[in-house]
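note to self — DONT lose this again. spent like an hour looking for the file last time. sequence + predicted structure for the chain T wanted, 268 res
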Amino acid sequence: MHQKRVTLKLAANESKELTETISQKITSIIDHDTRITVIVNKGQMMGHLIVKATYAPYEPPAIVKHTALEIFKFQLLTPLEGATILRIDTNENKRVFNMYKADGKTKILHLPNFQTATRTASQKEEANLTKILKQAASYPTADALHLLEYVVYAPKELTLTFGELIAAPESRNYALATFLNKQGKLTLQHKEVPLKIKSFRLTIYDKAENAKSHWVKVSKKNKWVTHLSNLQHENSIYFDKIIIEKDKQSFYLGQAFLFKIGKAFLTE
């Protein structure tokens, strides 16, 4: 692989804490294996550093799992407030429908041909974002309650690409410069067939595990990318609560995706 060369100029006062200063500066500029020339005080060359690995081990605050193959014919949802919601094809699953109808406490949503990969989900768990992202599918957004769930795929058949970056459903650890420089069109594929993304939740965990979520409606202007402009190393970028369109019909996708931004090793 061709080695990238970067010259890093430091002021005299920065040389007192040279190692930490270099670490902070180069994590935003390195991409692949990089030879760093360090210059201090307008001409004194201190030496060279070579970045041996652009993605050091990094553990995200929440893992992302493949949605299971098991398919259910109904789903029970527990909201923060109000009655439990049953999503079901009332014509197909009479036994379950009649049981919950008889209790008089459950709100029933009739969805023809309904299927799901998650039989139960609790909106209360949304209070802890880490917990919900560990699950195969999270509680649907309000505008997705009346949508069918997209379940006609097997694990490892879905891939989210963001330019040259790939998550299936987790990415490898990308160096910060790689993540910033290789961004492009956001594409979701089932095998090699594109699925049009209409909206999603974008959640960014910083290195202190502070989370910020943004609700994104996809458009040609791609303005949501500005949320990624102030990233640092050791960040986790989650895409979940995705609504897609296929054959002019909208579906809720209960699969999360994760891009990991690691930190480079520095060696002399």
